[in-house]
Amino acid sequence: MASPRILIYIMRRDLRIADNPILSEISRLYQQTKHPFTHLLPIYVFPADQVEVSGFLRPGEHRSPYPEARSSVGGFWRCGHHRAKFVAESVWCLKEDLEGLGSGLEIRVGRVGDVLKQVLEGYKEDSDAEVTCVWMTSEEGVEERREERDVKRIVKREGMEFRLWTDEKYFIDDRDLPFRNPSDLPDIFTSFRKTVEPLREAPRRTLPTPAKGTLPPLPPSVPPQAAPFTIPSTLPEIIEALHKPLDKDLDLEDAPKMPPNTTSVMPFDGGSQAGQDRIHALITNGGMSGYKDTRNGLLGTDFSTKLSAWLALGCITARQIHWDLMDFEDGKT
């Protein structure tokens, strides 16, 4: 049997299998007679700079090798209880979706560069496996760009292929804008909008979701999470680990307490399925039809779309919303 040739896909804010350019390309290549890889290793890393990961320490370990994930000025936790739960649910939904296609997802904590280095070192000790390339999606932001530079440096040092994909979760693709230089962008949104109209046709079409069996399987063996951390095997345990180090009052003195049995007006559940359910609910309950009249309302589930949480993590894309609405307008749904 030939040695496994592994493609590592580092997933960050592209937590979906639908309308995902990397998964779409992997599926296409894998169905060719001679595909460049035999196994796919998707990895999601809870980034230690943005999410407090000390709750993942193994029993007996008391100190994380990373500084606490607090804001530099106020010293507040950068990721609180609600966001941590939403991210964990989104990652777990992605894991289940990939498993449904015959693949899977490895969850890690730390810095992306550290995790990748540990995985590559683990495969060096396994002479039967070869990592051929590492792919990830480009993201805007200082820390995200730093991650990309770290990953590129590590991969190039090992002599492997590194590919940084253009992010495609936005409404209008940057490659389709009628401007050569960023300085040509209008200062007023209305002027910008008129340059890209008609908006009905402006967004690119969504990419097909890979069918079951069209993605490479996970490698026969995967290097484990490096010490001093351990990864729980269930979603409740992951949420518990994320919540464990967070103070109940988020370090606020005399913080007001929520009344007993208080619930949010909008039950935010993470994951691509929850995001899709939200889109379809807005269409079927008439929320989209009267959106212009209700969008500035504050309380209630359907005054505004409340889709930003799913969009921010890439659980859904803006063009998915657009084409769902086009189908609604055309009477196809």
Automatic annotation (TrEMBL):
SUPFAM superfamilies: Cryptochrome/photolyase FAD-binding domain (SSF48173), Cryptochrome/photolyase, N-terminal domain (SSF52425). Residues 203-222 are annotated as: Disordered. Residues 5-170 form the Photolyase/cryptochrome alpha/beta domain. It holds the Pfam family DNA_photolyase. PANTHER family: CRYPTOCHROME, CRYPTOCHROME DASH. Belongs to the DNA photolyase class-1 family. This is Photolyase/cryptochrome alpha/beta domain-containing protein. It comes from Cryomyces antarcticus.
